[in-house]
Amino acid sequence: MSGVFFPISETKHLAPGSTCPEVTPGLMRLYNMKFCPYAQRTRLVLAAKRIPNEVVNINLVAKPDWYFARNPLGKVPCLEFDGKVIFESLITCDYLDEVYPSSPMLNSTDPFRKAQDRILIEMFNAVNSNLYKLYRCSLDDESTWKGAIVGIHKGLQIFEDDLAKREIQFFGGQNPGIVDYMIWPWMERLPSLPILSHEMLKVQMENYPSLVKWFDAMKEDDAVKESFISPENHAKFITSFLAGNPEYDMEINK
Amino acid sequence: MSGVFFPISETKHLAPGSTCPEVTPGLMRLYNMKFCPYAQRTRLVLAAKRIPNEVVNINLVAKPDWYFARNPLGKVPCLEFDGKVIFESLITCDYLDEVYPSSPMLNSTDPFRKAQDRILIEMFNAVNSNLYKLYRCSLDDESTWKGAIVGIHKGLQIFEDDLAKREIQFFGGQNPGIVDYMIWPWMERLPSLPILSHEMLKVQMENYPSLVKWFDAMKEDDAVKESFISPENHAKFITSFLAGNPEYDMEINK
């Protein structure tokens, strides 16, 4: 089977006054926000494992009351199926990988390799925490943005070294695995930085030849294509979000 | 087999100028700090699963250089065995549970129960983050300590409700499981608060009858006994730590 795998249905971003769409028996439901990198992790795993699903998008600045009955924290991603609910991105992804062990298996079956992969995912916090700092910081605050860029480079170097050492195309081997999909959402957003604010926030990638090859290969992955958003639209969304009027449905209306 | 299970050997807290003790082939080594709640998680799992191990304690305010060759982050816990290294408390614990599946298995073999347990462990952050706030805050800063105590009660209520709903002694069932051991280190430290500073920081437990019973049962567990430190000594350590002169070896010299 090849080609892009879409969810069976996808709603606009629901807000107070909406009704929770009726559950389709036997179908996995993902509560999502189109631009949330954590929810994208779960979406990538659903697509990679070709698990039929429906997507209910949630307006995260004005959440519908009924959503808290699913997830008391009110966050996305959240999975619902057979009256059961699971949230937290890594927990949902590991769950899906365990209950749908059919190809491809994303976590390694070797416990040591699996532990190393989980450590790598933790270390990616250096990149994702600093990306959000850059989204929010003013260019006048030079020490903050310079520090954040140094932090991102430190993080990227860990992944460059690891990938070069493994001598494989993806962290998962011949195909993307759990590390690839867990870090992708923020890698997809990195090129939005110079569009969003200024060329000086561009993260120069020339010292990361393995990661650049990885990035290009990931963009061709079917699961990545399913949820891919262009750097221009990521920048447009962040701009609208920071202005207090997030254009959640931008990608749905197109 | 019953009775308290000790590690085979345990060093004082090693600092710069020390030499890394030679590795014992085939023996699991834990890099630890006697009062670190995260490292205690791993220690509890080693003891619960009766995995023979040696403990090398690390002075965390003055770390020996050689330690960074094991863990580039310089944190504990860290496991070393057969030239391999794993760190991050939850990752070390899950790894041990996977490679030593002999009784007792701490994670549920049901993927949904396992996911629910991982969510519960995440939710315990409400308790552990606020405990450390209380350790550090001044009693003059009333809004901070009152807010932290409210946060702890919110967290405890989640666990009380969950335990009452399960109608079992431990979160793991008849015996402690992964949730029990992952939250225990901070539960052990809660009674140190009123000793450390003031009776008003005492976390009143009368609204948590299931948790109180759980607490008493946990104190009788062999794995808990192995690393148990009294509220008095926790308070003494925190006092020395906040004064800039942590008494790391207090429990080893006794």
From TrEMBL, chains A, B:
Its EC number is 2.5.1.18. Keywords: Oxidoreductase, Transferase. InterPro entries: Glutathione-S-Trfase_C-like, Glutathione-S-Trfase_C_sf, Glutathione_S-Trfase, Glutathione_S-Trfase_N, GST_omega, GST_Omega/HSP26, Thioredoxin-like_sf. GO terms for biological process: glutathione metabolic process. Pfam families: GST_C_2, GST_N_3. GO terms for molecular function: glutathione dehydrogenase (ascorbate) activity; glutathione transferase activity. Transmembrane segments: none annotated. The keyword Transferase applies. Residues 26-104 form the GST N-terminal domain. Gene3D superfamilies: 1.20.1050.10, Glutaredoxin. Residues 110-237 form the GST C-terminal domain. GO terms for cellular component: cytoplasm. The keyword Calcium does not apply. Belongs to the GST superfamily. Omega family. This is Glutathione S-transferase omega2 isoform a.
